[in-house]
Each structure stands twice: as structure tokens, then as C-alpha cells.
UniProtKB/TrEMBL annotation:
Annotated protein name in UniProt: Dienelactone hydrolase
Any one GO molecular-function label of the UniProt entry: carboxylic ester hydrolase activity
Keywords recorded for this protein, A-Z: Hydrolase
Family: Belongs to the AB hydrolase superfamily.
Keyword Hydrolase among record annotations: yes
Amino acid sequence: MLPHEMKFVVDVPESGTVTEHADFDLCQPDGAEGPLPAVIFVPGPITAQLPVRPRHWPMYQGYARLMAGRGVLGVVIDQPYHDVSQWPEMAESLVRIVESVRALDEVDADRIAVWAFSAGAMQIGRWLTDSPEWLRCLALTYPVLDIPYSIGPGRPVILTRVGRERPEWQATVDRFRAEAEAAGTAVRLIDVPDGQHGFDVLDPAEQSRRAVLEAADLVLRDLSPLTRFS
């Protein structure tokens, strides 16, 4: 089964309005008024031969609608990211896309969350080192972090970790947690003990659904106008 044929583990109502831009899709809540915070979803690399882009997969559409249903904007980016070796180029592309999103009238440019999946996380190293004030949190779901980075103070990190991860990818997560602890960076850990890489489509269990919803709740908390980080 191909990714675009796989169902998201959370049942999300078909609501909200989706606007397609060159590099991303924007999902707005029904009846949205005024600029709203945005959650920007960053997929990992996919082979160029797949017939459907991640922005049109039920998984990422589900994440975006999940956030829109809770009153914020869901943004799924679209990059020509086909191999992990492209991560430096894609990281620069991501910066440009994020700035394009922040420039939209619909977006509260000072309340942004970036949520990366798998080796999509290899693009976020700059924001581990230096956190702009507009970045309210980073969320990482089964990340692969096989990149050079240093961790500076600032935004919290929401880390969803799976129990059946590939050892070489788990090693990058373990390294990240150790370095974050040494730097004093807040990491909120969500464990999916029986989950595998891609649990949000591959493991339709209550454990998976709880993990997705808990991560979403934490992201929303960090996007609150009452939350500030230094």
C-alpha cells in the first residue's frame, strides 16, 4: 500500500478550507477571522516516483485538519526532497517557505510552530541552535537527526519517540536527548512503546491516537498568547 492510500490513525472531520500555494497547502478553520497561529508540518524525503505528494496524503491532511479543528492554521509544506543527502538544500528551502507562510495575512507571524517528521527533522538544526521569538515550539515525530547541530536556549521541543525504531535512527534521538538535557532545553517526551516509524498510519491503535493528540495539545499550549520563552 502506498502512503497516499494509508489512513491517518485519528478520525478528523472533513472541515476547514484548504488553499493551495506553490510550496505548501494552508488549512484554515471554518469561519476563521483575523490572523491565527500556524503549525507548519515538514515531511521527510520521499522517492520521486511516488504518484502523490505528501501534501495530499491523508496523514498530513489529517494533521492539518486536526489543528484547524482546534482553531489554528495547519500548513503542509511541499519540497522536492527525495533523499536525505539533500537536507542542506532543503533546510534553506524550508526557511524561505516558513517566511512565505509568516507573510500571509491569515497568519499571526509571531506564533509559529514547526512540526517535523522522520528525516524532515534534518532541516531544523538552525532552530535548535538559535530560536527566533516567533518560533513557539518545535515538534519532532519519530525524527532522524543525523546532522551536525548545537542546542541553544529558547523554544521547547515536543518529541514523539517510537519503541520499534531502527537502531541507527534511535541513536540520533538518544544523542539529541542527551545534548538537550546538557543544554537545559525543555524536551517533552511522548512515548509510543509499541509504535514503529510511521505509527500514525501503520499502527491504528489507541496508543497511537493518544500520542498524536497529546502532541497536538502540547503544540497548542505553546502557541497560546500567554506562553513566553526565553
